[in-house]
Design goal:
Elements (H helix, E strand, L loop, with lengths): L26 E3 L3 E2 L5 E6 L14 E10 L6 E7 L20 E6 L5 E9 L3 E11 L1
Bound molecules: fe (iii) ion.
Fe (iii) ion (FE) binds next to loops.
């Protein structure tokens, strides 16, 4: 049995660390207090303190955001953001002209306080997560 008791074991593969020391941790910038129903602007970056490579062989594939309202049995997906260009081309790896950057901005509205969960996937270093509590003003 895994530590959270879900029985799937996936949660044990989701890594967490201090973003100031670990390049894979999503850094979530958003207000800590929001007005109910008002847009919440969120920016997610990786490698803010320690940069993460962005090459054909090693890059961030996607970021996904979820919100778990307080007292709600379920969590809700806010969005999924794919980064699909990493220098691939017919000339070979890292010879292409395009690289998507692993950063994303989006907004949402909530009528309840809760926790914003952000997941990121590195193609070779797996799943990473961070979260941020959001209170109602
Ligand atoms: Fe990596």
């Amino acid at each position: 049995m895994d530590s959270c008791g879900c029985g799937l074991g996936l949660c044990e593969k989701i890594q967490k660390a201090d973003w100031q020391k670990e390049k894979h941790v999503p850094v979530v910038d958003c207000p800590e207090k929001v007005k109910p129903g008002e847009p919440v602007q969120v920016k997610v970056t990786l490698g803010k303190a320690v940069s993460h490579p962005n090459t054909t062989e090693h890059h961030i594939r996607w970021v996904k955001a979820f919100f778990s309202p307080e007292g709600d049995r379920f969590t809700y997906e806010l969005g999924r953001f794919e980064f699909n260009a990493h220098g691939e081309s017919a000339e070979g790896a890292n010879k292409g002209p395009l690289y998507t950057s692993h950063e994303v901005a989006f907004s949402f509205r909530t009528s309840k306080a809760g926790t914003l969960h952000v997941l990121a996937l590195c193609n070779i270093h797996g799943l990473w997560a961070s979260e941020k509590k959001i209170a109602l003003a």
